[in-house]
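Researcher: Let's try something more involved. This one mixes different molecule types, so please make sure each is placed in the same coordinate frame as the others.
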Amino acid sequence: MLQVRKNRLWKLLTILFLSAGGISLILFSLNSKLDLFYTPSEMLQADIKPGYRIKLGGMVKNGSITRDGTTIRFQVTDFIKEVSVTFDGVPPDLFKEDSGVVILGYFLDGMFEAEEIFAKHDENYMPPELSIDPPAI
Amino acid sequence: MIGEISHFLSLSAVLLLSLVLIFNLFFFFSKIHPNQLTLSMRLFNQACWLVFISFGMYVYLAISDDFSIAYIANHSNSQLPIFYKITSIWSAHEGSMFLWIVFLTAWSILFINSLNNNHPLKKFTLLMLSLIILGFLLFLLLTSNPFERILPFGAVEGADINPVLQDPALAIHPPMLYLGYVGFVISFSFITAYLLNGNFELQWEQDIKNWSLVAWIFLTIGIALGSWWAYYELGWGGYWFWDPVENVALMPWLAATAFMHSLFASSKSNVLKTWTMFLGILIFALSLFGAFIVRSGIIDSVHSFANDPERGLYLLSFSGLITLFALTIFAYRLPALNSSKLVVTGSKESFLSMNNILMITSIFSIFLGVTYPLIIESINGDKVSIGPPYYNTIFAPLILIAAIFIMISVDALWQRSMPLRRFFTAIAVPVTLSLISMYLIWWTTSVFSILAYIGIFSGLLILFRYLLRVINNLFNKKFINKGSAIAHTGLGLLFFAVSMNSILSYEKNLNLAPGQSILVDKSVQEFSFNNIRVIKASNHDVISAEVSLLQDGREISLNPQKRKYTTRGQITSESSIHATFLKDTYLTIGDQLENGSWTFSLKINYFIKWIWFSAALMVLGMLLTIFKKKVS
Amino acid sequence: MNQLLRFLIVLLPIVVLIFFGKILLVDEDIKFSNFNSKIFPEFQLNDLDGNPVQSGSLNGVKILNVWASWCITCLVEHPFLTRLSEQNIQIIGLNYKDSDLKANAWLKKHGNPYLFSIYDPRGDLAFDLGVTGAPESYLIVNNQVVGHIQGEMNQRKWETIFLPLIQKAKQGS
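Model: All components are placed in one shared frame. Result:
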């Protein structure tokens, strides 16, 4: 009986130890690896540290897309503030002016360097933040 | 007219199923009526057939372009090929829910009729299945009615489904996935029936084993198809994004995998029974949770169905209630369950037991990743997203542990501890070979990433272990469990290929005018943009670029395109992929610049074919397991 | 130990349920991917009188109603639209795949509830909007499409779909 008890104790301790390790890893990862989402106004207001990767969501401003070789420059707006963005590469199909977009990247020296551009599988994508409350009359 | 009949049939099914439930509840507290079960079965079967016919009619409505049905008007178009008119049915919420229910009904009718009438669990299983189907039918008809009409005259033409969805792989992906998801209603219902019934001397594993294994195959294929489609259609060169919708499909899959392994153990000996039961309930609960997440609109993801809170509430309540019901009965019966606590250390059962814990941990990590943004937003309003960095960090150690378990436990014995000498020889060789291989990989590629190397190491451990085992057993004419060997080799291959892909793949962005040619790198010596043309097809216009590459001494042609669909004016890119054994050359065309030149994105993705192959191996392994001759 | 486990097994799903239930029922901040509004497509068309449609005409709160003289259902919804226009709701017509002669004749015969109608004989603007047929109505607020009704507009649809969105827009000011 005592042997069984002892085995159980070992088992319990191992589980606790592994759980503690596991939970720490999870919490650490959750907190250090999450991407904060901002609209242009929110981002300009907040104090973003340069090395921080964030998500920026809004509408691609009409007429703002320019292409220079493989680099694309455009403005993202939430109808209150605008942010200039630069991206190198081929954007997804649904990326166009007057359309919603979410970009992942870094904000440095007044310019947002996009690593990735996202668009939904639906031509009516707009980040929810901008779609529920229509602009006031 | 047909729309009305179809609608009516579904409503009748609701009525019949309600009758089944009421009838049995009424008799629950009194002496069981002699014909109760037969009558209930008859009602149930009829209800199922009504659902099938109703759906069949709905398919007819779609094929015959009945645009007075709002859903069909919104998602189909008279110009679509018949195949896509049919598949447009499950391209959005209402129709796909209908399909879900059809599959739920199909699994249920097959399983319940496979049980002998004097099977002690038949009645309770029937009640559970009736309840679940009824709940979903009511959900469909009350909140997500696919039969709604545009009155009084209907639409002139259909709105066409999103052209991104007009694709064979994507058309088959939901049916496969749903077949997998809902297939586990059987284990859910049967186990709950077992717990309700209360006779724990009964053996139950055999009755649901093959059903669950088949459902696992569908789920695996469904997930793999979705991943494959995302790879060649989205133009990003990626195949898994840890998107919430993907994650909620992965969680049931992990639970199902754990369940199967646990089932093997608990059907052989008397251990792990409670684990297996819990897992059997968990799988379907996670499927329901997945349906809720995707359809409630609560998590914004790149491919959730747009929806309203009312549907979310219904789904949440219904799923929550039946899950709670099952788990409460489970918790209540736990003390009485005859599960042996004597698991010998170092036996196969002990490894399977630890594997269950590992799987639960993985599921929990994903669950946390999916809900964390909601939790944070609830607390302080910040919007955050959890993406690949989190999941990669969490899963690297998890797959390493899994690989170590697999490596050690291959030789483990049932109910006995593994001899220590065997233990060391079993792991010494694979570990050494893996370390050497890793060094070689580092030496040839000069790329290093700690997470990726953990993945590579894990994959190699499994691959070498099985290689060793197969050689050993062939030599000594010992028995090999082929299904298990093939499936696990597939898993090892997956770990390896995914990790190698992550460190070796790269991308180049190019800008050329037609007729121009450039040198890209050591591998792609020449990239020639030969020609660009405009072509007209049935429901779209095509801009087609002809490119030839001189890659590793071989000449290959690529033909990336941009398509403009007539109905919605939507533009999509069709990437051109040249897939070889070792790598995929993946070319996407971008936009035309003012000077007439075009941008291109050239991606070199390594080991992609190995990823698809590993999924095929896992399915093959499972098929062998299902169909192997029963050794008495 | 076992008791704790049993308790947890039941408690965990309850916690999950309450958490998600709370979000669905209570939390205003968590936005749902509902009908996602988009900017009204650009167009260069004339109205039924032959005059070019001004760019500022979609400011404020407007209903855009897709109609045609060949559309029978449009006749069915016409009285309701007339009532709305009498209550000072501003409705702009989108005359879809029609002949301007027939369209004007239709308006003369049945009455004109529209501020004006955009003449879209080829369906170009309709195509950009995603129109599936007539009648169809869109709610436009400051050049953004925020609502959509398929089929004829009636009291029930007006109250359940457009009215709440209009009130929300008015609240924002």
